[in-house]
Design a protein that fits this description.
Its cofactor is [3Fe-4S] cluster. The chain is of the alpha+beta class. The chain contains 2 helices and 4 strands. The protein has one domain: Alpha-Beta Plaits, CATH 3.30.70.
């Protein structure tokens, strides 16, 4: 699994952090930060949830 995050699209809702806090974080302005672009397969469900709840559709998943 490869995860990408388009920070320019991020609206700082924080939903990705709630869904997968070991893969995403937020900077001081609330913009999402990708901590792990290749999370282990046991985190796939949480990362997929993070992408699904992102209101800006800023998270992409490959593989």
């Amino acid at each position: 699994m490869k995860v990408t995050l388009d920070q320019d699209k991020c609206v700082a809702s924080g939903q990705c952090v709630v869904a997968a806090d070991d893969v995403f974080d937020q900077d001081d302005d609330g913009i999402a930060v990708l901590l792990d672009p290749t999370p282990p397969s046991d985190r796939a469900e949480d990362v997929e949830q993070a992408a699904a709840v992102c209101p800006a559709l800023a998270i992409r998943i490959q593989g």
